[in-house]
């Protein structure tokens, strides 16, 4: 009986020693990334915590009055503002249309590029180019060279086709003008993600489907599209996160005119854009962060349900 007890104690001691060694090894593996983790916390979480604090105060830096703690007063004013509701709706329309159209056109182009042809590498490079252009340059190029009512290329083509009066794209269709530029710039990004998914397919599975008599349409919808689901979800998630924060295109193309002011530009107007209400702007920023998370989550669920169907 004593020997059994001693053996059990030895086993317990060894298991404790193994657990200590495992924990020590885990911390040893984490040690190299601790500086990066601390840096990330300093540059992201501390400013976010300060923004939460400022959102609970009444702070106008040009009034000369000290910050006053008002609790959730800024949030109550926010949801009662018709301008904020309009900016929120514009953000939803702009982001949803841009992401869905970018994914759609990116998928079509990826399917066309997923085959061998002469100059394939050159064509891919040309198609990727719009995504490599900085947002300010892209917006400026489209607003002046392409969509300008006096000397823009688009109005010049419409004039050759019989259109007499030039179209003021940024004035008549501000939201959809920005959406068009965003789709032009983000379609290559979606194309790259989806093309990676297409090229990751097992050729033997596709060949077996053809041998069994499946046509191209059946192969795409029953084999290829389900395999592309993770890539489509990734593109939707990243596109939603980035495009809901669009600021450059709004500033350059419309200057935040009626019908084009989204939430990031609205926050800018309320803070350093002339409002100087940093308490309100901080509250708006917190809401934008929450909206980004909700919007990306809903986008993923919607896409997943469509692919399941």
Describe the structure.
With 309 residues, this protein is an all-alpha fold. It has 2 domains: 2-54; 74-308, MetI-like fold, CATH 1.10.3720.10. 76% of the residues lie in helices and 1% in strands. The chain has 14 helices and 2 strands, in the order ααββαααααααααααα. It has helices spanning 2-30, 34-54, 73-79, 82-113, 120-132, 135-146, 153-160, 169-172, 174-199, 203-211, 216-243, 248-254, 263-270, 278-308; strands at 57-58, 68-69. It has a two-stranded antiparallel ribbon. The longest helix has 32 residues, at 82-113. The chain is flat. The N and C termini lie far apart (64 Å).
In the sheet with the most strands, the strands line up as 1-2
* Total of domains: 2
CATH topology of the largest domain: MetI-like fold
Mean pLDDT, all residues = 81
- CATH-scheme architecture of the largest domain: Orthogonal Bundle
Helical content stands at over 70%
Radius of gyration (CA) equals 27 Å
- Would you count the extended β strands for me? 2
Provide the CATH top-level class of the largest domain: Mainly Alpha
Structural class: mainly alpha
Portion of residues in beta strands equals under 5%
Order of helices and strands: HHEEHHHHHHHHHHHH
């Amino acid at each position: 009986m004593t020997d059994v007890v001693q053996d059990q104690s030895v086993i317990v001691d060894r298991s404790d020693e193994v657990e200590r060694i495992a924990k020590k090894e885990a911390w040893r593996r984490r040690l190299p990334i601790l500086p990066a983790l601390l840096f990330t916390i300093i540059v992201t979480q501390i400013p976010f915590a300060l923004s939460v604090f400022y959102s609970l105060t009444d702070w106008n830096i040009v009034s000369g009055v000290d910050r006053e703690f008002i609790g959730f007063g800024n949030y109550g004013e926010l949801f009662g503002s018709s301008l904020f509701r309009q900016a929120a709706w514009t953000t939803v329309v702009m982001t949803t249309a841009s992401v869905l159209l970018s994914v759609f056109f990116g998928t079509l182009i990826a399917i066309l590029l997923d085959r061998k042809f002469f100059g394939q590498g050159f064509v891919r490079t040309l198609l990727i180019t719009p995504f490599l252009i900085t947002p300010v340059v892209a917006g400026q190029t489209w607003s002046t060279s392409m969509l300008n009512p006096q000397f823009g290329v688009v109005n010049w083509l419409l004039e050759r086709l019989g259109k007499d009066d030039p179209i003021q794209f940024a004035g008549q269709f501000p939201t959809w003008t920005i959406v068009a530029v965003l789709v032009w710039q983000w379609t290559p990004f979606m194309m790259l993600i989806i093309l990676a998914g297409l090229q990751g397919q097992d050729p033997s599975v596709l060949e077996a489907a053809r041998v069994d008599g499946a046509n191209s349409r059946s192969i795409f919808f029953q084999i290829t599209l389900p395999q592309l689901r993770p890539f489509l979800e990734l593109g939707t998630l990243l596109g939603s996160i980035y495009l809901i924060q669009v600021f450059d295109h709004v500033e350059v193309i419309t200057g935040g005119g009626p019908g084009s002011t989204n939430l990031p530009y609205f926050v800018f107007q309320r803070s350093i854009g002339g409002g100087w209400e940093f308490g309100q702007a901080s509250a708006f920023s917190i809401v934008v962060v929450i909206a980004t998370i909700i919007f990306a989550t809903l986008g993923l669920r919607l896409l997943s349900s469509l692919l399941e169907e």
